[in-house]
Protein backbone atom coordinates (compact mmCIF):
# COMPACT_ATOMS: atom_id res chain seq x y z
CA UNK A 1 0.00 0.00 0.00
CA UNK A 2 2.85 2.38 0.90
CA UNK A 3 4.51 1.60 -2.42
CA UNK A 4 1.32 2.58 -4.22
CA UNK A 5 1.09 5.85 -2.27
CA UNK A 6 4.72 6.73 -3.06
CA UNK A 7 4.29 6.12 -6.76
CA UNK A 8 4.25 9.35 -8.69
CA UNK A 9 2.68 10.00 -12.04
CA UNK A 10 5.46 10.96 -14.43
CA UNK A 11 4.88 13.57 -17.07
CA UNK A 12 6.61 13.14 -20.43
CA UNK A 13 6.48 16.73 -21.69
CA UNK A 14 7.07 20.30 -20.59
CA UNK A 15 4.59 23.06 -21.42
CA UNK A 16 6.08 26.25 -22.84
CA UNK A 17 4.58 29.70 -22.29
CA UNK A 18 4.14 32.48 -24.81
CA UNK A 19 2.74 35.72 -23.40
CA UNK A 20 0.02 34.90 -20.83
CA UNK A 21 -3.32 36.54 -21.43
CA UNK A 22 -2.42 37.43 -25.02
CA UNK A 23 -3.05 34.05 -26.66
CA UNK A 24 -5.64 35.53 -29.05
CA UNK A 25 -3.07 38.06 -30.29
CA UNK A 26 -0.20 35.57 -30.71
CA UNK A 27 -0.38 35.70 -34.49
CA UNK A 28 0.07 39.49 -34.40
CA UNK A 29 2.78 39.31 -31.74
CA UNK A 30 4.63 36.87 -33.97
CA UNK A 31 5.24 39.61 -36.56
CA UNK A 32 7.84 41.60 -34.53
CA UNK A 33 9.38 38.35 -33.24
CA UNK A 34 9.70 37.00 -36.78
CA UNK A 35 11.20 40.31 -37.91
CA UNK A 36 13.77 40.17 -35.09
CA UNK A 37 14.80 36.64 -36.07
CA UNK A 38 15.08 37.52 -39.76
CA UNK A 39 17.17 40.65 -39.06
CA UNK A 40 19.36 38.73 -36.58
CA UNK A 41 20.06 35.85 -38.94
CA UNK A 42 20.57 38.01 -42.03
CA UNK A 43 22.74 40.52 -40.14
CA UNK A 44 25.03 37.90 -38.65
CA UNK A 45 25.21 35.97 -41.92
CA UNK A 46 26.22 39.19 -43.73
CA UNK A 47 28.98 39.83 -41.16
CA UNK A 48 30.30 36.30 -41.72
CA UNK A 49 30.14 36.70 -45.50
CA UNK A 50 31.94 40.05 -45.48
CA UNK A 51 34.75 38.88 -43.19
CA UNK A 52 35.23 35.69 -45.21
CA UNK A 53 35.25 37.29 -48.66
CA UNK A 54 37.27 40.45 -47.95
CA UNK A 55 41.02 39.65 -47.49
CA UNK A 56 41.60 43.05 -45.88
CA UNK A 57 39.39 41.95 -42.97
CA UNK A 58 41.36 38.79 -42.21
CA UNK A 59 42.71 40.40 -39.04
CA UNK A 60 42.28 39.33 -35.38
CA UNK A 61 39.58 41.91 -34.60
CA UNK A 62 37.37 40.77 -37.48
CA UNK A 63 38.05 37.07 -36.94
CA UNK A 64 36.77 37.47 -33.37
CA UNK A 65 33.80 39.41 -34.76
CA UNK A 66 32.99 36.50 -37.08
CA UNK A 67 33.12 34.15 -34.06
CA UNK A 68 30.64 36.42 -32.28
CA UNK A 69 28.36 36.46 -35.33
CA UNK A 70 28.51 32.67 -35.63
CA UNK A 71 27.60 32.25 -31.96
CA UNK A 72 24.69 34.71 -32.26
CA UNK A 73 23.48 32.86 -35.34
CA UNK A 74 23.52 29.59 -33.37
CA UNK A 75 21.56 31.16 -30.50
CA UNK A 76 18.87 32.41 -32.89
CA UNK A 77 18.58 29.03 -34.61
CA UNK A 78 18.35 27.16 -31.28
CA UNK A 79 15.37 29.20 -30.04
CA UNK A 80 13.40 30.00 -33.19
CA UNK A 81 11.56 26.60 -33.44
CA UNK A 82 9.87 26.80 -30.03
CA UNK A 83 9.34 30.58 -29.91
CA UNK A 84 7.74 30.78 -33.35
CA UNK A 85 6.00 27.43 -32.81
CA UNK A 86 4.06 28.93 -29.91
CA UNK A 87 3.11 32.14 -31.72
CA UNK A 88 2.27 30.51 -35.06
CA UNK A 89 0.87 27.09 -34.13
CA UNK A 90 0.24 27.35 -30.37
CA UNK A 91 2.65 24.39 -30.00
CA UNK A 92 3.12 24.49 -26.24
CA UNK A 93 4.38 20.96 -25.64
CA UNK A 94 8.03 19.97 -25.87
CA UNK A 95 9.40 16.53 -25.04
CA UNK A 96 12.02 16.03 -22.36
CA UNK A 97 14.66 15.08 -24.93
CA UNK A 98 14.02 18.13 -27.12
CA UNK A 99 13.95 20.42 -24.07
CA UNK A 100 17.24 19.09 -22.68
CA UNK A 101 18.85 19.42 -26.12
CA UNK A 102 17.64 23.00 -26.48
CA UNK A 103 18.90 24.11 -23.07
CA UNK A 104 22.25 22.45 -23.84
CA UNK A 105 22.66 24.55 -26.99
CA UNK A 106 21.35 27.77 -25.41
CA UNK A 107 23.65 27.60 -22.38
CA UNK A 108 26.74 26.31 -24.17
CA UNK A 109 26.43 28.99 -26.89
CA UNK A 110 25.87 31.68 -24.26
CA UNK A 111 29.07 30.69 -22.46
CA UNK A 112 30.95 30.51 -25.76
CA UNK A 113 29.76 34.05 -26.52
CA UNK A 114 31.00 35.18 -23.12
CA UNK A 115 34.43 33.71 -23.98
CA UNK A 116 34.44 35.42 -27.38
CA UNK A 117 33.68 38.78 -25.74
CA UNK A 118 36.62 38.17 -23.39
CA UNK A 119 38.91 37.43 -26.34
CA UNK A 120 37.74 40.64 -28.04
CA UNK A 121 38.64 42.57 -24.88
CA UNK A 122 42.10 40.95 -24.98
CA UNK A 123 42.37 41.95 -28.65
CA UNK A 124 41.65 45.61 -27.79
CA UNK A 125 44.09 45.45 -24.85
CA UNK A 126 46.95 44.19 -27.05
CA UNK A 127 46.11 46.64 -29.87
CA UNK A 128 46.19 49.67 -27.53
CA UNK A 129 48.72 48.67 -24.84
CA UNK A 130 51.19 46.70 -26.97
CA UNK A 131 50.57 47.66 -30.62
CA UNK A 132 54.07 46.76 -31.87
CA UNK A 133 53.59 43.11 -30.89
CA UNK A 134 49.94 42.91 -31.94
CA UNK A 135 50.55 40.84 -35.09
CA UNK A 136 53.02 38.50 -33.36
CA UNK A 137 50.77 37.86 -30.34
CA UNK A 138 47.44 37.37 -32.10
CA UNK A 139 48.48 35.06 -34.92
CA UNK A 140 45.89 33.09 -36.89
CA UNK A 141 46.90 29.69 -35.37
CA UNK A 142 46.71 31.16 -31.87
CA UNK A 143 43.26 32.64 -32.55
CA UNK A 144 42.09 29.24 -33.88
CA UNK A 145 43.32 27.56 -30.67
CA UNK A 146 41.52 30.18 -28.58
CA UNK A 147 38.29 29.56 -30.52
CA UNK A 148 38.61 25.80 -30.03
CA UNK A 149 39.27 26.28 -26.30
CA UNK A 150 36.18 28.50 -25.96
CA UNK A 151 34.00 25.93 -27.69
CA UNK A 152 35.33 23.04 -25.60
CA UNK A 153 34.85 24.97 -22.37
CA UNK A 154 31.25 25.84 -23.18
CA UNK A 155 30.34 22.34 -24.37
CA UNK A 156 32.13 20.36 -21.63
CA UNK A 157 30.75 22.46 -18.77
CA UNK A 158 27.15 22.18 -20.00
CA UNK A 159 27.38 18.56 -21.18
CA UNK A 160 26.54 17.04 -17.72
CA UNK A 161 23.40 19.16 -17.22
CA UNK A 162 20.99 17.24 -19.52
CA UNK A 163 22.05 13.98 -17.85
CA UNK A 164 21.65 15.44 -14.36
CA UNK A 165 18.16 16.65 -15.32
CA UNK A 166 17.22 13.36 -16.98
CA UNK A 167 17.63 11.40 -13.73
CA UNK A 168 14.92 13.47 -12.00
CA UNK A 169 11.23 12.65 -11.70
CA UNK A 170 8.88 15.32 -13.03
CA UNK A 171 5.42 15.03 -11.55
CA UNK A 172 4.23 18.65 -11.45
CA UNK A 173 2.36 20.65 -14.06
CA UNK A 174 5.75 21.25 -15.77
CA UNK A 175 4.69 24.66 -17.08
CA UNK A 176 7.78 26.71 -17.96
CA UNK A 177 7.56 30.50 -17.90
CA UNK A 178 9.42 30.93 -21.22
CA UNK A 179 8.91 29.69 -24.77
CA UNK A 180 12.24 27.86 -24.62
CA UNK A 181 14.06 25.71 -22.05
CA UNK A 182 16.54 27.03 -19.47
CA UNK A 183 18.31 24.93 -16.84
CA UNK A 184 17.33 27.18 -13.93
CA UNK A 185 13.67 26.72 -14.81
CA UNK A 186 13.61 23.04 -15.74
CA UNK A 187 15.30 21.97 -12.50
CA UNK A 188 12.52 23.65 -10.48
CA UNK A 189 9.98 21.34 -12.14
CA UNK A 190 11.63 18.25 -10.59
CA UNK A 191 10.14 16.41 -7.63
CA UNK A 192 13.63 15.25 -6.62
CA UNK A 193 16.53 16.76 -4.69
CA UNK A 194 18.07 19.39 -7.00
CA UNK A 195 20.97 20.47 -4.77
CA UNK A 196 23.60 18.89 -7.06
CA UNK A 197 22.22 20.81 -10.05
CA UNK A 198 22.07 24.05 -8.09
CA UNK A 199 25.67 23.73 -6.87
CA UNK A 200 27.00 22.67 -10.26
CA UNK A 201 25.03 25.42 -12.02
CA UNK A 202 26.49 28.03 -9.65
CA UNK A 203 30.00 26.65 -10.28
CA UNK A 204 29.49 26.89 -14.05
CA UNK A 205 28.22 30.48 -13.86
CA UNK A 206 31.12 31.62 -11.66
CA UNK A 207 33.77 29.84 -13.76
CA UNK A 208 32.44 31.22 -17.04
CA UNK A 209 30.39 34.41 -16.95
CA UNK A 210 31.75 35.52 -13.57
CA UNK A 211 35.40 34.97 -14.50
CA UNK A 212 34.99 36.40 -18.02
CA UNK A 213 33.27 39.58 -16.85
CA UNK A 214 35.98 40.22 -14.23
CA UNK A 215 38.74 39.73 -16.81
CA UNK A 216 36.95 42.03 -19.27
CA UNK A 217 36.71 44.69 -16.55
CA UNK A 218 40.41 44.24 -15.74
CA UNK A 219 41.27 44.58 -19.44
CA UNK A 220 39.46 47.89 -19.68
CA UNK A 221 41.09 49.20 -16.50
CA UNK A 222 44.50 48.57 -18.11
CA UNK A 223 43.29 50.01 -21.44
CA UNK A 224 42.08 53.15 -19.66
CA UNK A 225 45.44 53.53 -17.89
CA UNK A 226 47.28 53.21 -21.20
CA UNK A 227 44.96 55.67 -22.95
CA UNK A 228 45.31 58.29 -20.18
CA UNK A 229 49.08 58.14 -20.58
CA UNK A 230 48.76 59.30 -24.20
CA UNK A 231 49.62 62.98 -24.47
CA UNK A 232 47.32 63.95 -27.36
CA UNK A 233 43.60 64.17 -26.60
CA UNK A 234 42.81 63.37 -30.22
CA UNK A 235 44.80 60.13 -30.00
CA UNK A 236 43.04 59.24 -26.74
CA UNK A 237 39.64 59.60 -28.37
CA UNK A 238 40.79 57.63 -31.40
CA UNK A 239 42.02 54.77 -29.19
CA UNK A 240 38.84 54.72 -27.10
CA UNK A 241 36.66 54.85 -30.22
CA UNK A 242 38.03 51.45 -31.30
CA UNK A 243 36.54 49.99 -28.09
CA UNK A 244 33.02 51.44 -28.37
CA UNK A 245 31.55 48.58 -30.42
CA UNK A 246 32.94 45.97 -28.05
CA UNK A 247 31.72 47.83 -24.96
CA UNK A 248 28.21 47.94 -26.50
CA UNK A 249 28.36 44.19 -27.23
CA UNK A 250 29.45 43.48 -23.63
CA UNK A 251 26.62 45.57 -22.18
CA UNK A 252 24.07 44.00 -24.56
CA UNK A 253 25.12 40.51 -23.48
CA UNK A 254 25.78 40.78 -19.74
CA UNK A 255 23.05 43.24 -18.71
CA UNK A 256 20.06 41.04 -19.77
CA UNK A 257 21.82 37.89 -18.47
CA UNK A 258 22.40 39.39 -15.03
CA UNK A 259 18.91 40.89 -15.01
CA UNK A 260 17.29 37.52 -15.83
CA UNK A 261 19.34 35.75 -13.13
CA UNK A 262 18.25 38.33 -10.55
CA UNK A 263 14.61 37.99 -11.60
CA UNK A 264 14.77 34.16 -11.38
CA UNK A 265 16.39 34.18 -7.94
CA UNK A 266 14.84 37.19 -6.20
CA UNK A 267 11.85 38.27 -8.30
CA UNK A 268 9.20 35.94 -6.93
CA UNK A 269 6.89 38.86 -6.15
CA UNK A 270 7.28 40.39 -9.62
CA UNK A 271 4.71 39.96 -12.35
CA UNK A 272 5.37 36.85 -14.51
CA UNK A 273 5.32 39.17 -17.51
CA UNK A 274 8.55 40.83 -16.28
CA UNK A 275 10.33 37.47 -16.19
CA UNK A 276 9.02 36.55 -19.64
CA UNK A 277 10.08 39.87 -21.20
CA UNK A 278 13.53 39.65 -19.58
CA UNK A 279 13.90 36.18 -21.06
CA UNK A 280 13.14 37.45 -24.55
CA UNK A 281 15.54 40.38 -24.14
CA UNK A 282 18.28 38.01 -22.95
CA UNK A 283 18.13 35.77 -26.02
CA UNK A 284 16.82 38.04 -28.80
CA UNK A 285 18.48 41.43 -28.29
CA UNK A 286 22.23 40.55 -28.47
CA UNK A 287 21.98 38.61 -31.79
CA UNK A 288 19.83 41.43 -33.18
CA UNK A 289 21.92 44.38 -32.03
CA UNK A 290 25.51 43.11 -32.40
CA UNK A 291 25.52 43.22 -36.24
CA UNK A 292 23.85 46.64 -36.17
CA UNK A 293 26.34 48.06 -33.65
CA UNK A 294 29.37 46.76 -35.53
CA UNK A 295 27.96 47.87 -38.88
CA UNK A 296 27.41 51.41 -37.59
CA UNK A 297 30.59 51.81 -35.52
CA UNK A 298 33.13 49.87 -37.63
CA UNK A 299 34.14 51.83 -40.72
CA UNK A 300 35.55 48.85 -42.63
CA UNK A 301 32.42 46.70 -42.12
CA UNK A 302 30.14 49.62 -43.01
CA UNK A 303 32.08 50.43 -46.18
CA UNK A 304 32.11 46.79 -47.26
CA UNK A 305 28.34 46.53 -46.69
CA UNK A 306 27.73 49.63 -48.81
CA UNK A 307 29.87 48.23 -51.63
CA UNK A 308 28.06 44.89 -51.46
CA UNK A 309 24.59 46.49 -51.54
CA UNK A 310 25.33 48.85 -54.43
CA UNK A 311 27.54 46.57 -56.52
Short key terms for the protein model shown above:
311 residues, mainly alpha, Rhopdopsin 7-helix transmembrane proteins, two-stranded antiparallel sheet, 13 helices, disordered N terminus
In short:
The protein is an all-alpha fold and 311 residues long. 75% of the residues lie in helices and 2% in strands. It has helices spanning 2-6, 26-53, 60-89, 96-129, 134-137, 140-158, 160-166, 183-186, 195-228, 233-241, 244-266, 272-297, 299-309, and strands spanning 13-15, 93-95.
Percent of residues in helices: over 70%
For this structure, the CATH topology is Rhopdopsin 7-helix transmembrane proteins
Q: What sort of overall outline do the alpha carbons produce when their principal axes are compared?
A: globular
In total, the number of strands is: 2
**Low-confidence spans: pLDDT under 50, at least 5 residues?**
1-9
Radius of gyration: 22 Å
Largest sheet: 2 strands, antiparallel
Give the name of the CATH superfamily.
Answer: Rhodopsin 7-helix transmembrane proteins
Secondary structure category:
mainly alpha
**Arithmetic mean of pLDDT:** 89
Number of helices: 13
**Overall number of structural domains:** 1
Strand order of the largest sheet: 1-2
For the record, what CATH class applies?
Mainly Alpha
Distance between the termini: 78 Å
